[in-house]
Amino acid sequence: EDAKRALDVASSHFDEVxxxxxxxxxRRRHLHIARDEAxxxxxxxxxxxxxxxxxxxxxxxxxxxxxxTTLNKAEELIEEAEKLLVKKQPDYLTVVRLATxxxxxxxxxxxxxxxxxxxxxxxxxxxxxxxxxxxxSVSAAKEFIEDHRSDVGPQARQLLADADAALHDATDYHxxxxxxxxxxxxxxxxxDADAALNKAKQDFKKAED
Length: 209
Known about the structure:
Blueprint: H1 2-58, H2 66-85, H3 92-147, H4 154-176, H5 179-208
Helix pairs in contact: 1-2, 1-3, 2-3, 3-4, 3-5, 4-5
C-alpha cells in the first residue's frame, strides 16, 4: 500500500515536471518565433506609417489632420519597440506586441482617411451634378419666360431672379472649393428655377384661356 502511494506521488510529480518542461519548451518556441518576427514587424509598421503619412499629405484637404497625431503615437510605439530590441536580453514578445499595435493603428488611420476622401469625392460629384442641373433649369426657365414675356407675371420673374442669383453664388463657391455651399445654393437655384418655370407655364395657360 505504501509502495503504491509512493508510486502515485512520484507519478504525479513526474506529470508536473513534464507539464513544466512542456510550458518552458512552448515559451521558448514562442520566444524564438517572436525573435524572428520582431524586426519584420517593426519594418512593416514603419512602412505602413509612412504610407499613411504620404496619403494624408496627398489628400490633406479631404482628411482629418488628427490622423497625423495618431500616426505620431504609433511611431512612438515603434521607437519603444526598437529600444527594447537592442537590450541585452530583449523581450521579443513585447517588441512584437508593440510593433503589431503600431501596424494596426497605421492600417486603421489609412482606412479612415480613404473613407473620408471617398466621401469628399462623392460630395464633389454631387455638387457638380447639382450645379449642372441648376444651370439647365435656370436656362429652361429663362427661355420660356423670355419667349412668353407678355404673359408671364412678376412672381415667376422673381423666382427666376432668385434662381439666377443662387446659381451665381453656387458658381462662386464652386471656384473657391466650398462643396457644402455649392450643394446648398445649387439645390436652391434648381428648386427656384423649376418653380419659376411652373408658374410661368401657369401664367401662359391662363393668358391663353
